[in-house]
Amino acid sequence: MPKQAPLSWKARGWRWMKQWWQDIVHGADPFATLTAILALFTGLIGIMGAFNLDYGGAPTGVILLDFGVALCLGGLAWWMFRQQSAMWPRWIVVAVLTLACFYVLATIPSDAAVVVLTMLPILMAMLASRRWWPIAFYPLSVTIVASLHAGGWQVFTPAIIAFNILEFLMLWGVTSQAVQFAKARVKTEAQLSKEQQVRQFMRFFQHELRSYSNSLDVLLPMLNQQLSERPALEQSTIQPQELVSVLQSTADSIRQLTTELLVLTREGQLLPQQRMPIQLLPLLQSEQAESQAEMQRHGLNSTIQLACPVECIVIGDALFLRLAVHTILQNAFEALLRYPGEGQIFIQVEQTAQQTTIVIYDTGKGFPNDLLDHLNQAQSLNQALGWTTKIGGSGLGMPLIRHVAMLHGGTAHFSNRPEGGAQIRLVLPQV
User: Which residues form the signal peptide (predicted)?
Assistant: First the structure.
């Protein structure tokens, strides 16, 4: 595949400016970008002062202040780019600019600087908070500047005050529009994500039901033939009991699928009426016996070891927890089936005053690394869907386990044990 030619610095600069403008128009917070621009501007002013290009003979203290403010603003901008939700660097920017502006106005007797430097801290405070209230500090800012500046109150003509107020109103209009765009974008993205998740659910559901439907399409004619030709029943190689068994298995699979989809479509956490005290040991013993019997039917010579305190009680929904444990055990013995041997499955429960931890692991080959990365890095149910290690699998099992833990306010972690084998840890809070 041929390598793409690197972009020129002009193309990169134009793309950066275009992206920055789109961020402002479509609602992204431009505060970090404006801080970076102010850092560059302040650094250029310091360079001009150092080479006597400002035609004013700026004092050495002001030049050093320019470089110091430029470094400080640059570091704060980098901080905000790395942590976009952090508020502390925003208010530090406002404080640094306020002190620097007052110092410059007290040092340089320039009437033109008053117009910008008096309102700059308030403008940045409005951008940082996205609120009107920083305008209330404008009279205080004017009073401080009048007491520091050589021109006193005479520099604040009605035209300057009107210009500053107009700038406040324009900035607030742009900021309000940006906030509205941001809210609309978040709402639209959430709606699209939800619709995408629904479509993905429907695709999985359709895939699974098509498989079961094909099985029924094959079984039903055979069953009809068996019932219509009763004299030939004894000579048939297929016994009615076998057909009934397959039909029952198919019905159980459809019931399991609909239950999984019922759980996966729940949002938030369990309702108060769903939070009931559950004796965990009988629940695990029931799933242990059922999975052990199924392993024996498949000819798997393995055992399931259970270690759980007798009086262990968890708060939650028994159906959801049973489904999660069943799914874990099902995946464990299916993994052992792919590598026949004397594999073992272990269930261990630890309980403290704060949480109950259910650890289920086996002695098989473990999870594929890419599956672990996919499950542990997914930030939502929609991202966790779609990965399966089984041919024809729906990819609902692992996301279901995570979702059950989330519905109970807990977490699910997937890992491989150093000794070998896959391990799933369910942590449920004691609420």
Answer: none
